[in-house]
Amino acid sequence: MDKNTITGLVLIFIILITFSYLNKPSQSEIEAQKRQSDSIVQVESERARQAEKEVAAVKAISDTKTAKAAGDTSGVTGAENELKSLYGVFSEAAKGSERFITLENNLMKVRVSTKGGKIYSVELKGYKRFNGEPLVLFEGDQNRFGLNFFSQNKSIQTDQFFFTPSVTDTILNVTGPAVSVGKEGREKFNTDGKEGAKSFAMRLDAGDGVSVEYIYTMRHNSFMVGFDIHTAGLKKVMGANSNYINFAWAMSLPRQEKVSKFGEDNYATSYFKFYQDQVDKIAPTKSETKALATKVEWVSFKTLFFSSALIAEKPFINGQVTTKKRDKDPLFVSDMSADLTIPLDNSGSETFPARFYFGPNQYNTLKQYKINLDEELSLGWTIIGWVNKIIIIPAFDFLRGYIGNFGLIILLLTIYVKLIIAPFTYKSYISQAKMRLLKPEIEEIQKKFGDDKKMESQQAVMALYKKAGVNPMGGCLPMLFQMPILVSMFYFFPISIELRQQSFLWAHDLSSFDSIVTLPFEIPWYGSHVSLFCLLMTVTNILYVKYNNEMSAAGTQQMPGMKTMMYMMPVMFLFIFNSYASGLSLYYFLSLVFTFVQMWIFKRLINEDEIHAQLKAKQKMPVVKSKFQTRLEEMSKQRNVPQKKR
Description:
Number of strands: 23
Number of domains: 3
Shape: elongated
CATH architecture of the largest domain: Distorted Sandwich
Largest sheet: 10 strands, antiparallel
Mean pLDDT: 79
Structural class: alpha+beta
Oligomer: single chain
CATH class of the largest domain: Mainly Beta
CATH topology of the largest domain: Beta-galactosidase, Chain A, domain 5
Number of helices: 15
């Protein structure tokens, strides 16, 4: 082993040690990780204890009923004493029967149960599941929430008790004027006296001034449900030093769309926004628990097209969120939960104002609340997202207000985009025409220098371009402008809820793939179905590549590898887009068709003989050097001039 080898090994060892030292977690990170682990263990153990308590409580209630039926007063007393040992002052609320109060407006139907005072189910009226059934975001134990705290050394979870409603009616219907298409859920609609609202409370009373109350409010044409938590006298049973209570929310998200490898499972996850800070999430592909160490404004359980969000007017102190994926489950996409901390003060009677959002992931609907809920939508990074927000979505919404056929809307959207970039496409065509007219001279230069002097040949070609006033990169200009739009469409169409279950020609749902043939087997990366819009896009793309190669001025002998790659790209897209939204394939297909139309129009408008004459005239003119180029040449000459001897 020579000296250089030893030196290299020593340096590698030093780098590894330094890297390990710099990347080791800080003390605060270690403590945060420990708190998160402890919190998870605590939650799991608490759930196990609660399950045992539930079994004991059910047995005690059953024993009470049996003893009462048998007239056994000692049995009743024993069972009630068992309930008191489990729940203390809340033991009476453990007995009761489940009833429902329904809040309903023009957009949704929300059922609230007296068991736990919780929202039992939410049905969105304007939507259906993929199989045509009513779209229910959750129902029954698929949604669980309540306050958790210790009372007289007893663990209390309010979702196990029976609440008393403040109303006798079982249905509260919020009415208002008709809403036009595209204005569903818009808060501005409820101005100028259009708003109707209904409210009621669910109350858990422990006696002696101790109570927990949920106040629900629904307005006309709104996906929001007011949810104010009011507590009174809790510190009497919790202890004077208690300064917070926990709010636990868990949900199993039903599958609303048909199974697709690029569908619901790729978008379902938990989102959360830190107080006066950015929106974060758990990666949609992961099952993970994240500790929220700082204040939190809202938490959302999101699928591809719908969200259930809990929004606090005053932020939660901290908490944690969990997403557990249900791979290949035909009924549910994932299980999500949030454990959040609500602050308490010493007032004795406190209100924690909050609200739920149950509705579609529609950009303008979410954006109107100005709490960054719209950042749940995967509209693309930086410039791509801005293209969607500034160019695509406004045009799409405008067309949607006047046209009901979404295939026609995509057609008009394609024309709109093509008109935006038409000036650049025209300049590109002019540039390609000039280079094509120079092709005979380029071939002469290539023959002159042969294959042995490729560098000299390239320099001579560039000199020809310069003398003729042709920019060889001019044909790339429209692509630079069109690429962000093409990529933005890749993000926009799969998550656009407006396209959901909208049919066009043979496609039954423009937000999902269009299948004209179901294969008896599955092709890797392709799938087990054939998408016709994807096939049309692929064939048109191959024809466009062929046309582009024929129009190229540089000749096919220079870059045969590049030519092959250009033909491979459409084939790759065939595999990628076969399972994507058919609306996206339709847009790309129409975009390519209109590109051919543009080229045909430009070819009819442009006189190539006139351009050729201009090129010849330009070549005869002396090349005018720029000031910068002249200065560089002078500096180069000065460096090459030998200095005089003194």
